[in-house]
Amino acid sequence: IATMIAAVSPFMAVAKNYDSQYTAQTGYVTLEKSDNSTTWSFASAGNWSDTKEPHSGTNYYVGVEKTLGVYPKAGSLNEYKFPGNLLVVAGEVKHSSAAGNSVKWGETRLLPGSKYILASKASINEGDFIVEGTVDDPFTIGVNSTHGAHTLAMNVSSLPSGYMKLNKIIDNDTLQKALLTGDWSRYYGTLECAAHPFFQTLLKQNFDMPGKIVVPENGTLALQYDSNKPVIASIDVKCGGKILFVLDANDSYLHVTNQLSLESGAVVDSNNKFTRVVYGGNEPTHTTMVFRLSSKVAEGLKDFDWNSIDFIHRKERQIGELPYVVPFVV
To answer: Which residue has better confidence, 203 or 10?
Structure first.
């Protein structure tokens, strides 16, 4: 494994060196220039250095400041899969806005500073993504759309760790949702929710991630009724960040196995009238359980209810004022 990382992973290098590492001499077909509105190299010879349509058994590279245009073949919406053996991205993938435009990817390595831009109605239907971003140079998924929901069916891993950031590109009051599904059980890196009041990072289906989710100011991490009690190692909710339980999430909870950090001004809320957290006089109205902590977490803090603004509560007993960190205990 160490040999493989040394040979193909430049995560320790600066971005300007990526292009010199992924060349014909090292076994890659490269994107010679950026695609535009009439050229889509995802499913055509386009701007590839070998002048051929992408094919199996071949490694591909999208260089720094290059853009790969994504638009599937006619008649293959939701079915066409990029056929290359490996795609390495240092630049940008720009996913078109065709109605029903969901595409599939094979193994895709996302270097620090790389981007994947989703236009209206664009979604990822399948893919194995290896994230190598860092906190200073993250891999970014940007939503450049007026469409409500984008499904990201991604199998995500990190090498050796990673940093992925969601971003709302159009600054408007249209609610955007990134619906995360797929297998995240090999992602030990960080996922940062979009810092926008009209963007929700929505966990779908048995979401299980051994890494960390950061909810920044104006960010929202949302759980829908079918989230089925996702398991996350660590969650860090900043001041002004929110965890939102939506629809019929009466019995939904987050299972936090490592550390739950809640800054002063963080919010946990629900839009279900039966579980909404509100203040009544000096005491809040308690919800059903919204967090369940691992047995490895400090004794006495395994299960608790939490009001939306200032305090952590367990049953009728106040535990402490925010900011508050529930520590991991070996």
So the answer is: 203
Which position has the token pair 């939102």?
A: 244
* Predicted confidence (pLDDT) per residue in 80-129, tens digit: 789 899 999 999 999 886 645 788 899 999 999 999 998 877 888 889 99
Considering the entire predicted model, what is its pTM? 0.80
Report how far residue 257's alpha carbon sits from residue 252's, in angstroms, rounded to the nearest whole number: 16
Tell me the backbone φ, ψ of residue 260, rounded to 5 degrees.
-115, 115
CA-to-CA separations, 198 to 1, 40, 138, in angstroms, rounded: 42, 30, 22
Quick: pLDDT tens for 203-257. Answer: 876 789 999 999 999 999 988 765 557 888 888 888 888 888 775 544 556 677 7
Backbone angles phi, psi at 8, to 5 degrees: -120, -10
Tokens of 262: 């809640």
Indicate left, alpha or beta for 221 from its phi (over 0: left) and psi (-120 to 50: alpha): beta
Can you say whether residue 205 is alpha, beta or left, with left for phi > 0 and alpha for psi between -120 and 50 degrees? left
